[in-house]
Specification:
294 residues, alpha/beta, TIM Barrel, 12 helices, binds 3-methyl-2-oxobutanoic acid
């Protein structure tokens, strides 16, 4: 595997129809997560606004701010991953004005992202153009856009009618023409994702969008079995780290309570001089320590 950092230009043309390997994107929200994801050989680490549900305990992504996202992007960037770092623009960070959107995108870039992602269709064209105009690469996100949960009336599969599928196709083409270098397609029928993928010259990355995208993305906590929720049907869980972690914590608690932790090897020991200076066991609150001086 090459050790060169992955860049936006190197990803822009990654179409499976042209023989490219499918792109792999995984979310991460902190330095250890980014190290794990990068060591796993992914192409893109997405610092998703799903940090809201997966790390911060919120029920939806509407609660996170640009300051929250910058904090998590910076933590991920400290892992200096080889993969491309994409920072998610949170709700209300690109809805008020284009100037505001560009400034907020720049905040994520200065925190360490190399591109930003934002949700929505044709209504986002002005901000996408403005952000790209500021030399910041933009990944689009179409279909089930979690920041629209209230407008959608829940997390529902989108583009289920011919008109809705056509609207999604039109939006994808318009946003690609505006310069988006890739798209997340979330929660859409596989045939719709396949058609959009075929129509675009930039890669699509699916989540709950079937097998015919140019890549796939999963949320770190879903993939590793760290989440509290029952994952949606499009998730494949590759490990159950939540269960392994609970077992480990329970073992620690049992060892502490039974006196098995810490052992002599896990303790620091006083020098002979210190032991002597501390005096006999019965006079010292510190008690008698073996005099190995480590
Ligand atoms: O925030 C996120 O995790 C996302 C993925 C679902 C693509 O946007």
């Amino acid at each position: 595997m090459s050790t060169d950092r992955i860049t936006v230009p190197s990803l822009r043309a990654r179409k499976t129809r042209d023989g490219a390997e499918p792109l792999v994107m995984v979310t991460a929200y902190d330095e250890p997560g980014a190290r794990i994801v990068d060591a796993g050989g992914v192409d893109i680490v997405l610092v998703g606004d799903s940090v809201a549900n997966n790390v911060l305990g919120y029920n939806d992504t509407l609660q996170v701010t640009i300051a929250d996202m910058a904090h998590h992007v910076a933590a991920v960037a400290r892992a200096t991953p080889r993969c491309l770092i994409v920072g998610d623009m949170p709700w209300m960070s690109y809805h008020l004005s284009t100037a505001d959107a560009v400034a907020n995108a720049a905040t994520l870039i200065r925190a360490g992202a190399q591109a930003v992602k934002l949700e929505g269709g044709r209504a986002r064209l002005p901000v996408v153009e403005a952000i790209i105009g500021a030399e910041i690469p933009v990944m689009g996100h179409l279909g089930l856009t979690p920041q629209s949960v209230l407008a959608m009336g829940g997390y529902r599969v989108q583009a289920r009618t011919a008109d809705a599928a056509q609207a999604l196709m039109d939006a994808a083409k318009a946003l690609a023409a505006a310069g988006c270098f890739a798209f997340v397609l979330e929660g859409v029928p596989d045939v719709v994702a396949a058609r959009v993928t075929e129509a675009l010259d930039v890669p699509t990355i699916g989540i709950g969008a079937g097998a015919h995208c140019d890549g796939q993305v999963l949320v770190f906590h879903d993939l590793l079995g760290l989440g509290a929720r029952t994952p949606p049907k499009f998730v494949r869980q590759y490990a159950n780290l939540g269960e392994a972690a609970t077992t480990a914590v329970a073992a620690f608690a049992a060892d502490v309570r039974s006196g098995r932790f810490p052992s002599d090897e896990e303790s620091y020991h006083a020098s002979a001089e210190l032991t002597e200076a501390l005096g006999p066991d019965e006079e010292s609150a510190l008690g008698a320590a073996p005099s190995r001086g480590d």
